[in-house]
Each structure stands twice: as structure tokens, then as C-alpha cells.
Amino acid sequence: MAWRVERVSPTEVYTFRWGRGAGFFTVHRGDIGSSHEDDHLIDTIHIGRSWVDESDVASQARSWLRSRIGPRRRGA
Q1: Who's near 10: CB < 8 A, 6+ residues apart?
Q2: For residues 14 and 2, is the Cβ–Cβ distance under 8 A?
Q3: Is residue 74 part of a domain?
Q4: Would you list the DSSP string of the chain?
Q5: In sequence order, what are the residues at sequence separation of 6 or more whose Cβ sits closer than 8 angstroms to the Cβ of residue 6?
Q6: Could you tell me if residue 9 is inside a domain?
Q7: Is residue 31 part of a domain?
Q8: Domain span at 59
């Protein structure tokens, strides 16, 4: 399982969780840590394949952010 936390602003944070072998990843509001629960679940994205490596997870997270929240400037 891979988790990726993306901070959009000081008050807007998302956690992306993608299980090895799963053809989908989930998006959660806030930093859920390494939780396996569906707390704060806001979206499920069906990809149809497993993640390859951490850069694959990062790429899918950025793609989701661009499609859902637009090109707003992200915090560091």
C-alpha cells in the first residue's frame, strides 16, 4: 500500500491511498497517516492497474488535483 499526502494550502490537505494490486486509489480529506480506514473518503478513482512505484502514485495524485481543484497555486 502506498500513501501520498498533498498539501494544497495550509488548510487544504489530501491523502491518496493506493493498494498494491488494486486497480483504483482513494482520496481522503486531510492527512490520514497510514490508516487503512475510509475515514474522510471523498473519491475513488478506478485506474484498472496497480501502481508501479512512488512516482506513479505522485503522478496520479497531481493529475487528480489538477482535475478537481484546478491550477490553484499549491503551497510548499
Answers
A1: 75
A2: no
A3: no
A4: -EEEEEEEETTEEEEEEE-TT-SEEEEEES--TT--S-TTEEEEEE-SS---SHHHHHHHHHHHHHHHHTTPPPP-
A5: 13, 14, 15, 16, 61, 62, 65, 74
A6: yes
A7: yes
A8: 2-69
Question: What would the grid cell of residue 26 be?
Answer: 482513494
- The whole-number pLDDT of residue 15 equals 96
Distance CA 8, CA 22 (A): 26
pLDDT averages per 10-residue partition of the chain, 76 residues: 93 94 94 91 92 90 88 53
> Would 76 be classed as within a structural domain?
no
Identity of residue 66 = R
> For the chain, what is the radius of gyration of the CA atoms?
12
- How many domains does the chain contain in total? 1
